[in-house]
Amino acid sequence: MDSANHLPDDIHRLAYHIMAPANWINDPNGLVQYKGEYHVFYQHHPDSPKWGPMHWGHVKSKDLVHWERLSIALAPSEAYDRDGCFSGSAVVDDHGVLTLIYTGNIWMKEDQSELKQYQCAATSTDGVTFVKDPANPVIAEPPFDCCGHIRDPKVWKHEDQWYMILGTREGNHGKVVLYRSKDLRSWNYIGIAAESDGTLGYMWECPDLFRLNGKDVLVFSPQGIEPQGDKYNNLHQTGYLVGNLDYQTGKFQHGGFEELDKGFDFYAAQTFHDEQGRRILIAWMDMWESYMPTQTKGWGGALTIPRLLELTPENKLLMKPVPELELLRKEHDHAQSIEVTPLQSDYLSHIKGDCLEIVAEFSLAACDASEFGIKVRCSEDYTEETVIRFDVNDSAVIFDRTRSGIGEEGIRRAFLDVSGKKSIKFHLFVDRSSVELFVNDGELAMTGRIYPNSSSNKVDIFAEGGCVQVLSWNSWKL
Ligand code: FRU
C-alpha cells in the first residue's frame, strides 16, 4: 500500500487496502477530512500480530486511494487509558482543531474479566501529533450500570451543539446512549437512543449516527445475535436502523435491523461526511476470532475499501465503492455477449491476476441456468477457486470460499430481489487476500478474506444446469 510496508514478502499482504506496517489492526477510527485531506486512524497493536494494548495507527490520503503512513497518533500513557486507547471518532472543532474522542480502557483485574472505560479527548493542530486533553477523562461515570462496558464515542455537530453516541449494555441488552456538549469537554447525558428488544444482542459496539436522504441512520455492531438461516452467521454483526432521532428526548424511533455486508469479514464500520457532501464508510475487513494465517507472518487485519452510502426511499442502505478507486485501474479487458454453457471453462484464460476489479453483467432474460457466476483466484486445474454464484431458483447470491486456499472454509448466502430485473451486475474488488463484492450498484455487499496460493490467478465465468449470457465483461488489473 505504500513504501512503509514492513512485510513485503508475504504473498497475502494487500496491495491497495489500508493495513498496519506490521502487526495487529482492527476497527477504523476517527475517519475525517481535515484541511482537505482524508485521515483514517485504526485500532493497532504495534508490538504483536495479535490484539493487545490498543494504539491508534494513522494514515492520510488526498484521494481515498493512495495512503501515506503517519506516526502512531495515540498510545496508552495515562491513568485513564493505561491499558488501551480504544475506538472513537474525530471532529474538527469550532476553532479548526482536529479533535479525537476515544475510549480509555483500564483492566480492573489481571485476567481482564473486569474493566472500566472512560471517554477522552486529544487534539492536534498539524494533523500528525496529538496531545491528550487536560480535561480527560471527559466522561468518567455513566448514570447506569453497564459493568464498565461503555465505549466507541462517535461525535457530530447538530445545530450549535456537539452530540456523542456510545455503545454499551445493561444486563444482556445492547444499547446506545446519547450525550450533548457545547465544547467537546463537558458532556451531559440525554438518554438511551436505542436498545435491543432482546433479539439484537448483549452489547452494541461502534455506533455511528448520521443523516442521509432526510432520515437518521444508526450503524452499529451488535454482539450476540443468534444466527437465523442465511442471516447473522458471523460471530458478530454490523448493521443499521433507519429512523428519526429526537434531539430533545434523545430517542431514536426506527424500523428493523438490517445487516450491512452479508459476507464473512466486515465489522465495526464507521462513516464520515466529506467535503463533497458524501457519506463514506470504512470497516474492519476481518472478524473477531476468525482464523488469520497471516499472524504467523507478523501481521493481522486490514480495512475495507472506502464505500459510498446512499439511502433509498424504502430505507435501504446502498453501499458502493467510491469512484476514486478508478485511479487504481491499469490494463483493461473488455468482452460482450459471451454465451456461457455448462461443462465448459477457460472463457477468460487471457486474464490473470491477484489484484483485479471486475464488472460483469449477466443476463436474466437470456438465462436457463440454475446457477451462474464468476470464479477468481483459480488454480490451473480449478482445485483452488473462490466462487461468486447466483442461485436462480432461490434468488440468492453465494460467496463460496470452501476451496479458496488455506484458512476458514465457508459459504455465505444472501437473498437478492431480482423481480422485474433483466440482468445482474457483479462488481468485484480482488486484492491478494480479499474479495469485496457489490451487486446491482450497491444493493448487496459481501466481503471475505481468502488465503490462496500466489499462483492461483485465473479468472472464469460459469453456468450450471443451463446457459447464461454475459452481456458485458470489464476487468482491470489494479
Ligand atoms: C470493536 C471493539 C470496540 C473496541 C475496540 C478495541 O471491534 O471491540 O468496541 O473499542 O474493538 O480494540
- What ligands can be seen in this structure? beta-D-fructofuranose
The beta-strand count equals: 33
Strand order of the largest sheet: 23-33-24-29-30-31
Mean pLDDT: 96
Name the overall outline: globular
Poorly predicted regions are: none
| Discrete helix count | 0
* Helix vs. strand class: mainly beta
Rg (C-alpha, Å):
22 Å
**Measured distance between first and last alpha carbons:** 12 Å
Helix content: under 10%
Please tell me about this protein's structure:
It is a single chain. This protein is mainly beta and 478 residues long. Helices cover 0% and strands 51% of the residues. A hairpin with a 5-residue loop joins strand 21 and strand 22 (317-321). The protein is globular. The N and C termini lie close together (12 Å). The mean pLDDT is 96. The structure holds beta-D-fructofuranose. Beta-D-fructofuranose (FRU) binds next to strand 1, strand 5, strand 9, strand 13 and strand 18.
Supply database-style keywords.
mainly beta; 478 residues; globular; 33 strands
